[in-house]
Design a protein that fits this description.
Order of helices and strands: HHHHEEHHHHHHHHHHH
Largest sheet: 2 strands, antiparallel
Strand order of the largest sheet: 1-2
Structural class: mainly alpha
CATH topology of the largest domain: Ammonium transporter fold
Number of strands: 2
Strand content: under 5%
CATH class of the largest domain: Mainly Alpha
Helix content: 55-70%
Number of domains: 2
Shape: globular
CATH architecture of the largest domain: Orthogonal Bundle
Number of helices: 15
Radius of gyration: 29 Å
Length: 514
């Protein structure tokens, strides 16, 4: 019997065996409806029945609450592990986009940035950022984190949680929260590598990572996420909406890393041979585009922990919206960069397409929980254009050497992501009884607010009035020309030529009215 026939016979026998196995009626609880019910509670608590008393009800409530927090802990830790895996993506990406002679140096910078910045954040950075963030309801309150410097709504820095010890911070909730937040800080630290590649000394790089992990990232992060003054702008005398809003870090993580990278790139100057005497740039192609693509896809996978994990719990069902919005924006950004390079050079550029995907991911990070899917696509599209033009701006006009496009991707698109919250948040999250930054109302942007009910009527009325006024103005020009017979305006320009432009090009809808 030939090998093909043997394979076919073995496959057929296997399928028949599986069909036979499927008929064994040994089902226990395949739907899950019997698992985790009252019997499991009784077995765990060691009682025979739930007492119909306050004591029994309290015991049941305690168990239920503990299970909910356990689910959230598990979600937070798993998504934190996914964000940690993004280090692999950054290592592949920046190594692939630089020259082969520097591959070892690039990998060393990625590894060293991880361990050094982590220890700096553990020692002081976490306390500076989240020392006064409590309570966090999804994690059981994190009650030790109550130390904040700054009166009322003017918080400047936290001071509980140094070395995960001070202020009673040796606590399971605090430590779970630390794991998730330290990998976010690591992301900001990785970003600067792409912009200062191939020309920074190792000692200088280590100093930059210590500063990022201990001071730069934690302090701005505290102002936005740790109960600091920016997050409280909606509660103070100004009453500015929900305060500064950044769901998962377009500004706190990516723009911080991007603008720090810009500063370092300007201080270091360009690589030798990057710019000619006349200022025109020379391309230094990456040595392994396969690495770049693998790195981009690994980062995209990690982002599925980065954004949905920022709910701090699987009990917040908005995670589904966050995840889908993240993928939509990433795809839209990649398509725009692909199409733009194809239109400009006759074929799509793989490195720019990767940066377009990352641009969409960066831009959606702040608004991912607050916008509808259509808005996520729009945010990704605009991010795709932002990144290609920002790369060109830095390279050809500003003369700033950014080997991997990190400033364009994280700095520029991070800023766009923050603006997108204020423009496109649709007011469906969070619930008005929960609110955001202590303000009991959903986060709602300018455009959805204008498109609501009576505001929509007012907006359309204003636009209609503008068009009618323009129509009247054009008609008036025509009538005055007919009365006076002078085709020239007050500056001696031929009004007939101008009228023809208005009719034929700028406002074709007014042709008959004129």
């Amino acid at each position: 019997m030939s090998r093909g026939k043997k394979l076919f016979a073995m496959t057929l026998i296997t399928l028949i065996a599986l069909l036979v196995v499927s008929q064994f009626n040994h089902h226990a609880d395949p739907t899950g409806t019997k698992t985790g019910a009252t019997a499991d509670y009784l077995a765990q608590s060691g009682v025979k029945k739930v007492e119909l008393s306050q004591v029994g009800i309290n015991a049941l409530a305690n168990t239920t609450g503990h299970l909910a927090i356990s689910i959230n802990f598990t979600w937070l830790l798993i998504t934190g592990f996914m964000v940690l895996f993004m280090q692999v993506g950054f290592a592949f990406l920046v190594t692939g986009l630089t020259r082969a002679k520097n591959a070892g140096h690039m990998m060393m910078m990625n590894l060293s940035s991880f361990v050094i910045a982590l220890l700096a954040y553990y020692a002081v950075g976490f306390a500076f950022q989240f020392g006064g963030v409590a309570p966090i309801a999804n994690l059981g309150g994190t009650s030790p984190l109550t130390g904040i410097f700054g009166h009322g709504t003017a918080g400047l820095i936290g001071f509980h949680g140094f070395f995960l010890q001070s202020g009673n911070s040796y606590d399971v909730g605090v430590i779970a929260f630390f794991l998730f937040q330290v990998v976010f800080m690591e992301t900001a630290g990785y970003i600067i590598i792409g912009a200062i590649a191939e020309r920074v000394s190792f000692a200088g790089f280590i100093l930059a990572e210590i500063a990022m992990g201990a001071i730069i990232y934690p302090i701005y992060g505290m102002w936005m996420w740790g109960g600091g003054w920016l997050s409280q702008l909606g509660n103070g005398m100004f009453k500015l909406g929900n305060g500064a809003v950044d769901f998962a870090g377009s500004g706190v993580v990516h723009a911080t890393g991007g603008w720090a990278a810009l500063a370092l790139a300007m201080i270091l100057g360009p690589r030798i041979g990057k710019f000619n005497k006349d200022g025109t740039p020379n391309a230094f192609p990456g040595h392994n585009l396969g690495y770049a693509v693998i790195g981009t896809l690994v980062l995209t996978f990690g982002w599925m922990g980065f954004n949905p994990g920022s709910t701090f719990g699987a009990t917040d069902l908005r995670i589904a919206v966050v995840a889908v919005n993240t993928l939509l924006a990433a795809s839209a950004g990649a398509v725009v960069a692909m199409a733009w390079t194809n239109a400009k050079w006759g074929k799509p550029d793989i490195s720019m397409t990767c940066n377009g995907m990352l641009a969409g991911l960066v831009a959606i990070t702040a608004p991912c929980a607050f916008v509808a899917p259509w808005a996520a696509v729009a945010i990704g599209i605009i991010a795709g254009f932002v990144v290609v033009y920002a790369v060109e701006l830095l390279d050809k006009r500003a003369k700033i050497d950014d080997p991997c496009g990190a400033i364009a991707v994280h700095g520029f698109c991070g800023a766009w992501g923050l603006l997108a919250v204020g423009l496109l948040a649709d007011g469906t999250y969070p619930d008005k009884a929960v609110g955001w930054n202590g303000v009991l109302q959903p986060v709602k942007g300018v455009i959805p607010a204008l498109l609501d009910g009576d505001k929509l009527f007012a907006t359309h009325g204003a636009m209609s009035g503008l068009l009618l006024g323009l129509r009247h103005h054009v008609r008036d020009l025509h009538d005055r020309e007919a009365v006076h017979g002078d085709p020239r305006d007050s500056r001696g320009r031929d009004r007939r030529h101008r009228r023809g432009r208005v009719r034929a090009g700028l406002l074709p809808g007014l042709r008959l009215a004129c």
